[in-house]
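Aspartic proteinase A1 isoform 1 (Hibiscus syriacus), 476 aa
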Amino acid sequence: MDTSILFVFLSLSLFFSDSNLCFQVHAFQSNGTARFKLIHRHSPELGNFPGTTLGPPSNRRERLRQLIRSDNARLQTIARRLFPRRKNVQVEMWQNNNLVELPIRSAADIGTGQYFVSFRIGSPPRKFIMIIDTGSSLTWMKCKYKCKGCFKDRVSHNERILNAKTSRTFRPIPCSSHICKQDLARSFSLQHCPRPSAPCSYDYRYSDGTKVLGFFGNDTAIVRLTDGRKVKVPEVMIGCSETIMGEFHDIDGVMGLGFEWHSFALKAARKFGYKFSYCLVDHLSPSNLVNFLVFGDVNDPMTPKLQYTELILGIVNPYYAVNVSGISIDGKMLKIPSHVWDIRSGGGVIVDSGCSLTQLVRPVFDRVVAAFKAPLSKFKKLSIDSEGPDICFDDTGYKESLMPKLVIHFADGAKLTPPVKSYVLDAAEGEKCLGFTATPWPGSTVIGNILQQNHMWEFDLLNSKLGFAPSSCTYE
C-alpha cells in the first residue's frame, strides 16, 4: 500500500456537490470521555466496498487529484454563495456545562466533505451517517413522507431512511409560512404552495449536476454526551429528501454546521455553550491517532492553550470568516494590498475544513510564490497536469529546513504558524508540491484543512472568537 501521504481532512463543509459511502466507527473510553476514531476516505478499511470511491487510490498522485477535484467543485459554490451578503444572525446565551461529542468518519468525493458523523433523529430515533458541513446550514437526510415508492430498494434492505410519518416529533413546515417564503429562500425553498398547509419544498442544484428534492420540517435529534448520557435536542430543522439524482447515491445526508439560524451548529450550540471544536491530526501521522468533533467546552487537561482571533459572523453566511492582516515569509511581511483582506468589500479570508489545499487569491498567491522562488530554485521544477497543484518540484536533496517559514498574521495579533509539511506536500514518489492554488481576484482566500492540521480549532459563536493552537490531537 502507498503510505507516504494520508490526507486527513475534516470536511466541515460541503460546497454543493456530494457523494459518500459505507463507514465504520470505533469508540474507546478515555478518562470517562467517549472518543471516536475517525476513518479517512483513503483508509484501507474502506477499500472493500465495490462501486465507491473510498479506500486507497491507485497511487499518491491520484490521491491528490481526488482532493483537488473536490476543491474545484467547492470553490465554485463558495464564489456563488458569497454574494449577496447576508444579515447578521443573533446568538442568545443558554448556560449549560455539558459537552456533546460526535463520531467523525471519512467521506468521499466530488465537492463533498471528507468526514462523517453518526446522527440520530426522530421519535423513535433513527441513526444516519452524515457528512459534516460548515459551508451549508441545512441538515437533511434520505427520507419518505409523501412519496410511496421512494427508496424502495433501500427500504427492502433495511437501510437508513427516515420515515417522517412514523416519527412522533416530526412536523413539516408549511409552504405558506414566513420561514418558507423568506428565511429558507437561501436554502432553495420553492414558491409553489398548492394549499397553505402543504409542506415547504426545496430543490437543491449542485455544481456537478446533482439535485436533491424534498421538503422542510422540524424533528428531535438525540446526541450522546461524553459521560454516556443521551440528550434530546428538539425542533431541529431538517430536510426530508425524497428524490436524489446524481452523486449522492450512497450517502445518508448532510449535517449543516454553517452559521445560519436554522443550522444544527446554532441549535446544538444553544445547549452546549455556543462552541464547537475539532482537531485534525497530521496527514502523515500513524492511523491510530484520533480526530474528533465536539460541541461544548473541551475540558481535557491535555487541551493546549489557545490563541484567539475575531470570528466574523453574519457577513458571508454560512461561512466562517477571519480578519487577516498579512502573511510573512521568514519573518518578512509580504507586500500585499490591505483591501485583499477586507471581507466586507469582496475579499477577506474564510476558514474552511472542506477545502483541502489553501486557496489564495491571485494578488496573494503571486507574492507567496515569489517568496518561495529562491529556495525552490535549488530543485528541478516539474511540469504539472490540469488536475495537479500549481507548483511542484523534484524532491532530491529536500530537507524541511531549506523551506521558508510561513506565518499568517491576524489583525488582533494572533499568528498561525503551520508546520512546513502542511504547505509543502508529499504529492508523489520523488515529488513535492506547494499546498496553495491560485483563485481569481476579487474573491476570498480560503484556509484549507491541510494548513489547519496539527492544530486545535475552537469556534466560539457567542463571543465571535476563533481559538487555535498547535496540538498532536491526542487526548488520552
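DSSP finds seven helices and 30 strands in the chain. Residues 1-40, 45-52, 83-97, 103-113 have pLDDT under 50 and may be disordered. ok done for today
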